[in-house]
From TrEMBL:
The lineage of its organism: Bacteria, Pseudomonadati, Bacteroidota, Sphingobacteriia, Sphingobacteriales. It holds the Pfam family dTDP_sugar_isom. The active site is at 61 (proton acceptor), 131 (proton donor). Keywords: Isomerase. The record marks 137 as: Participates in a stacking interaction with the thymidine ring of dTDP-4-oxo-6-deoxyglucose. Belongs to the dTDP-4-dehydrorhamnose 3,5-epimerase family. It comes from Parapedobacter indicus. Its EC number is 5.1.3.13. It comes from the Bacteria. CDD domains: cupin_RmlC (cd00438). This is dTDP-4-dehydrorhamnose 3,5-epimerase. GO terms for molecular function: dTDP-4-dehydrorhamnose 3,5-epimerase activity. PANTHER family: DTDP-6-DEOXY-D-GLUCOSE-3,5 EPIMERASE, THYMIDINE DIPHOSPHO-4-KETO-RHAMNOSE 3,5-EPIMERASE. The keyword Isomerase applies. Gene3D superfamilies: Jelly Rolls (2.60.120.10).
């Protein structure tokens, strides 16, 4: 399990070692020990899975408070552009986003600590997006920012009229309209 830094401190790409043989492959998708060695004391309490059509954009979401969430995200089938935005008030990279393609080979995942907005655009039908989180789902701690907030300036690789965005996500505020709880 290899940890690769990104331009945003604490936001890490994780590459699993893939053991291929005549049957297919095996990989560890999470192992507590290398996480500990990296100084990530994450305890995952919930595993989530969503399935999305091409053009579905979910985001930009975070969960704060007693059940603040760090997320370990990966794609099991299909392909997404995955995006995290640093909203830690005292961070030098506050407001900066990082994007990467995650695809169904599943060997690459992203560790998104608490203090980040997260979202993704599904680039293929039947995209299975799996993630572990460090806090239980808690509606009272949910917050979000619009995916098309000009301050985030995220370069989504699809035309606006192709996107499928939930009613809830269309109502989200801009980053400048909220006070980050992180
Ligand atoms: C996230 C979540 C949702 N739900 C329910 C609430 C709602 O009725 C239904 C769909 O919820 P949402 O519309 O919030 O699902 P979705 O838009 O997929 O939300 C997710 O988006 C990505 C980008 C993230 O980063 C996740 O943390 C999460 O916020 O599922 C749970 O029961 N448990 C959960 O942990």
């Amino acid at each position: 399990m290899k940890f690769v830094t990104t331009p945003i401190p604490d936001l890490l790409i994780i590459e699993s070692q893939v053991w291929k043989d005549e049957r297919g492959f095996f990989m560890e998708t999470y192992n507590q020990n290398p996480f500990k060695t990296q100084g990530i004391a994450a305890t995952f309490v919930q595993d989530n899975l969503s399935c999305s059509h091409r053009g579905v954009l979910r985001g930009m979401h975070a969960q704060a408070g007693d059940n603040a969430q760090g997320k370990l995200v990966r794609v099991l089938h299909g392909r997404v552009l995955d995006v995290a935005v640093d909203i830690r008030k005292h961070s030098e990279t506050f407001g900066q986003s990082f994007s990467l393609i995650l695809d169904g080979n599943g060997a690459k995942s992203l560790w998104i600590p608490p203090g980040f907005l997260h979202g993704f655009l599904s680039l293929e039908d039947n995209t299975l997006f799996a993630y572990k989180v460090t806090g239980f789902y808690d509606k009272t701690g949910e917050l979000g920012v619009r995916w098309d907030d000009p301050d985030l300036a995220i370069d989504w690789p699809m035309d606006r009229d192709e996107l499928i965005v939930s009613e809830k996500d269309q109502q989200l505020p801009f980053l400048s309209d909220i006070v980050s709880p992180f």
